[in-house]
Amino acid sequence: HVQLQASGGGLVQPGESLTLSCAASGFTLNRPAIGWFREAPGKEREAVACLSTNNDITYLPDFVKYRFAISRDKNQNTINLQMNNLRPEDTGVYYCATDLGQASSYALCHSRPTEWGMGTQVTVSS
After folding, report:
1. Closest CA to 7 of 118, 92, 114
2. pLDDT at 76 exceeding the cut of 70
3. CA angle, 65 as apex, 62 and 69 as ends, to 5°?
């Protein structure tokens, strides 16, 4: 079965950078999109970045596209989220997630994935 585990969260000050990693395993013939989603206090879950593992095409919403980047490490089978110029509103629990029925990064970031990791806490505060 598919396993996803997010790591790399922590406490940072505004303007600093942080990289999250998603360890993915259990994929066989499927090449689905994998994405990062976050849940901030008092806010609904929202997609922050998605990547299609078959062609590395990415999707990022406007509110993060100039600061964040998502990439795949083929050798280590990890999905990374590079976050730059972090803001307090970026605070939240970040989850790595996928849906074996969604190959498109755009589609995954506009739906609710079915497979989730445990998440990692990111806190941006001075």
Report:
1. 118
2. no
3. 155
